[in-house]
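Hey,
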Amino acid sequence: MTNRIPVKVGNTEVGSGRVVVQSMTNTDTANAKATAQQIYELHQAGSELVRITVNNEESAAAVPEIIDRLRAARCDVPVIGDFHYNGHRLLQDFPECAEKLAKYRINPGNVGFGKKRDQQFESIIQVAKDLNKPVRIGGNWGSLDQKLMARMMDENARLIEPLSSEALIEKALIESVLTSARQAESFGLPAEKIIVSCKVSGVQSLIRIYQSLHQQCDYALHLGLTEAGMGNKGIVASTAALSVLLQQGIGDTIRVSLTPEPNQARTEEVKVAQQILQSLELQSFKPEVTACPGCGRTTSEFFQVLAKQVTEHMDAKMPQWRLSHPGVKEMNVAVMGCIVNGPGESKHADIGISLPGTGETPSAPIFIRGQKTHTLKGDNIAQQFIDILDEFVVQNY
């Protein structure tokens, strides 16, 4: 990744070349117990920064308890306060909230309106400066500065070749965050305390905006497709947008803004963000499982069941392995379904199993770092393989 101006957020450094995964709670922040629990779960899943909504007096008052609960649980994840409209007042009226938060996120489109805009913006920056806190100046095309947009629309209308409405919005969003960032510097907040973002929900638009931001400034950049959506749509859209930018060395923190399925854990967005980075070979978070997709040669569902069992087993083991066998996150495991690609893929993996396909001899060779070491048979192949896998981890990581 291309280095930007490094920003220290709590105990996490942003902009030094390693992409940081961020997430956000969806609890009522005023419910300190529930919010602390969800932050803990997000951090356990791998989120290095967690943002919470601070939208009223009750939520601001709850922040100290939330942080205290986390520290009591030995969770030191930096917590970011997300402020809109009334951030200037909440940060001033609740000094312990301002002190406990690791970073503030403000939106230049709604930090203040009319004559009060600059005054309220400066008030927030002053608190951040006094407490040595970083600030993310995060624009969103759903809440653009209307005064700025009106001015730019008038200027655009006078051009011989005016910009399209989409291009004009993109230009306005970039100008909004960069103008605000430079204004924050003029108020005394150092560049190494500023992160910027421009959130849109269109893949191509996000790519264009961040390519432009990357060229125009040295601030650390937070990436994310806003309102990405639910399920496959949200995952695919976020992956498409972020992968292009990350491959170009653009982006210092990322968030995948998924709408959770009913009763689905909030942690899914963290897993997707990690998988994007791992698939691009930018970072490793847990062992990879290479699994056969299945075809007419693999009429049995056993290889699918085994792939699922192995993945779930490793996920359950990772909290322990992360401490006792940290190198295991680089491990590659293959679970293959027939003789066509099974032995080859298994040899390429650190450890792999090639299950028999339709009409093949009912045996399953195990390969460890390219060498055949075992041949499993019978009805207990799954547990046998998992036992061998566990032993391999202990001996090699």
